[in-house]
Design brief:
16 helices; six-stranded mixed β-sheet; about 375 residues; Rossmann fold; five-stranded parallel β-sheet; alpha/beta; 3 domains
């Protein structure tokens, strides 16, 4: 692995930006799918280096952001019960449900714990046999193998007081939903390199062919992102629609076979509602029948919880690439990281959080001509 500074080299960034300018002959809109890429683009000002008419928009690449309100409310309902310990990654605690968040439940006496690995939750369950321990499993294909391994190990160790509330989602169906929308404006995609490190990129090839869009597997550093944009622009200008992988130092076409095996055993593909977007067929992961006893929704009877979303938050439009965070009237005033209206402001990978952290003092949308 090369040193990270090599992928932030200013001269290399300048050369790639100039090359993109020379390659761009028409107006194009490219979507980065990953929230980590969004933060890098905003932090380093990548979009401000691009030529007039070449626009980067932000996709539904933050799993915290797309977790629907009803699943947050289900987690809150579980965590509020006596004798229950709910374990979660820290970024879920301040995501607003319909009335409060998990941090409020914790302040009211609920046993809500931040963990750094799903295996931490399993160890808590093993050490506290008299309590029900629930792990709030959120993420894309990147985190699903590790989360699934906790359930896999619970079954083999006979840990009966452990369960998982699964909110896992899958990237390709979301890309399909965006491309199939009547208001779609996306001409090409930068695919999330860490998702492809697990899954490979074979499943993107039919999407590229069916919708005639280039998809470029992309990393997270400035040179990675600009190289991804350049390859995407070249395909668009030449009328090609292929999957390319310049992120070969991390990603292979077949992905990680063992991680995919664990996912295939522990989970099954289900329809999933996405916050701000709606129901996307076959876009989520629920526990497979063989592991149904570890399903927290069934164990605690919260599967029927359904909630309407707030009409004030425009996160759904942001997650579909139709609006930027600064287009929201509440941005930076009624909606801040301390008092978020939606998950895109509170999540560490949310687009609104990125704009608030790096660009809230700028007069216009990102201060760049390509960000309208």
């Amino acid at each position: 692995m090369r040193y990270i500074d090599e992928y932030r080299d200013p001269d290399g960034v300048r050369r790639l930006a100039e090359e993109i300018g020379r390659a761009t002959g028409r107006a194009w809109t490219i979507m980065e799918v990953c929230g980590g890429q969004t933060h890098a683009i905003v932090r380093f000002g990548i979009d401000g280096l691009l030529p007039e008419g070449l626009t980067l928009v932000h996709g539904p690449g933050c799993p915290v952001c797309v977790t629907p309100i009803e699943i947050i409310d289900r987690a809150i309902g579980i965590a509020s019960q006596r004798g229950v310990t709910l374990c979660s990654f820290g970024d879920m605690l301040r995501v607003p449900g319909s009335g409060k968040d998990l941090l409020r439940v914790k302040s009211e006496g609920g046993d809500v714990r931040i963990v750094y690995s799903p295996m931490d939750a399993l160890r808590i369950a093993e050490a506290n046999a008299s309590r029900e321990v629930v792990f709030f499993g959120v993420g894309f294909e990147t985190t699903a193998p590790a989360n699934g391994m906790a359930v896999y190990q619970a079954a083999r160790r006979g840990v009966k007081n452990f369960s998982m509330l699964s909110a896992h989602v899958l990237v390709p169906p979301a890309m399909e939903a965006i491309l199939s929308s009547e208001c779609n404006r996306v001409n090409g995609f930068l695919a999330a390199g860490h998702v492809c490190a697990v899954m490979g990129y074979e499943e993107y090839e039919p999407i590229a062919a069916r919708h005639r869009v280039p998809i470029v597997v992309t990393g997270f550093e400035p040179l990675d992102l600009l190289q991804g944009v350049l390859l995407c622009v070249r395909q668009l200008e030449e009328g090609r629609a292929e999957v390319e992988n310049p992120y070969s130092r991390v990603v292979r076409r077949e992905g990680n076979a063992e991680a995919r095996r664990v996912m295939g055993e522990v989970f099954r593909v289900i329809d999933r509602k996405w916050r701000g977007i709606g129901m996307i067929p076959r876009s989520g992961l629920g526990l497979a029948e063989a592991y149904a006893e570890f399903d927290a929704e069934a164990r605690f009877g919260v599967g029927g919880v359904s909630v309407e979303e707030s009409g004030e938050c425009i996160s759904g439009l942001i997650l579909r690439g139709l609006k930027k965070p600064v287009d929201c009237p509440a941005f930076g005033s009624r909606c801040t990281p301390e008092r978020p209206l939606g998950a895109t402001m509170v999540s560490g990978e949310g687009a609104c959080a990125a704009y608030y952290k790096y660009r809230r003092h700028e007069a216009g949308p990102a201060g760049g001509r390509n960000n309208g």
